[in-house]
Amino acid sequence: MKSARIWLLAMVAVLAGVAWWIQPDSVSVPKPEGQVRITLPDTTSARYTSPCNTTYQVPSHAKVEVRSAPQGEAGCWYNLVFPRFNARVHCTERPVDNALPKLIQDAQSLVFGHEVAAAGIRRHALDLPKKSGMIYVLEGPVAAPIQFFVTDSTSHFMRGSLYFNHAPNPDSTAPVLERMEADIRRIMESLEWS
């Protein structure tokens, strides 16, 4: 009787071991390769006159949203809203009032404040008759991936920053950033002060 019990326990142990050994593994199913589909709008633009009488070419797919200036601040404040990209460019126009070095320093400090999160910063200078400026393209997961300023060095200064209304993901926003950089360059190059 004792040997029958041992034999029965041995058989149960062997069967449990075999059942554990042959249990099916979960089969992983490979995901198909895919890319995020982003359809970019056409590249048409229209002439826009800002509240400070500055004119430039604005992409047709953008809308203008005028904001009031913070108390004690001079100039014009408005946003160029890009609903299709869930993004906006915050724009500020100010008089130079013999403070050009301070205005440029403020613009640069806003750019380099993102340096900790940026993987790199590309700069492109704008040097045209009667205006100059700089566009900064910040690479990596930064809050404001494109920033710029344009000035005539004597009377007018315009600064802008691109913000997305979602967490920045450089891989998925790369085509949009390329397009936005081209749109901002067109704004800078076509800008004229009255």
Kindly summarize this structure in a few lines.
The protein has 194 residues and is α+β, with helices and mostly antiparallel strands.
Would you give an account of this structure?
The chain is α+β, with helices and mostly antiparallel strands. The protein has a single domain (46-67, 76-193), classed as Protein Transport Mog1p, Chain A. The chain has helices at 2-21, 100-112, 170-190; strands spanning 45-49, 54-59, 63-67, 76-82, 87-95, 120-128, 131-139, 146-151, 156-164, 192-193. It has a seven-stranded antiparallel β-sheet, with helices on both faces. It has a three-stranded antiparallel β-sheet with strand order 1-2-10. The termini are far apart. The model has no long low-confidence stretch (mean pLDDT 86).
* Approximate shape: elongated
Number of distinct beta strands: 10
Mean model confidence by pLDDT: 86
* Terminal CA distance: 110 Å
Helix content: 25-40%
CATH architecture annotation: 3-Layer(aba) Sandwich
As for the CATH topology, it is Protein Transport Mog1p, Chain A
| Strand neighbour order, sheet with most strands | 3-4-5-9-8-7-6
Provide a count of the helices.
3
Order of SSEs: HEEEEEHEEEEHE
Biggest sheet overview? 7 strands, antiparallel
Radius of gyration: 29 Å
The overall number of domains is: 1
Spans with pLDDT under 50 lasting ≥5 residues?
Answer: none
Question: Which terms would index this structure?
Answer:
194 residues, alpha+beta, Protein Transport Mog1p, Chain A, 7-stranded antiparallel beta sheet, 3-stranded antiparallel beta sheet, 28% helix, elongated
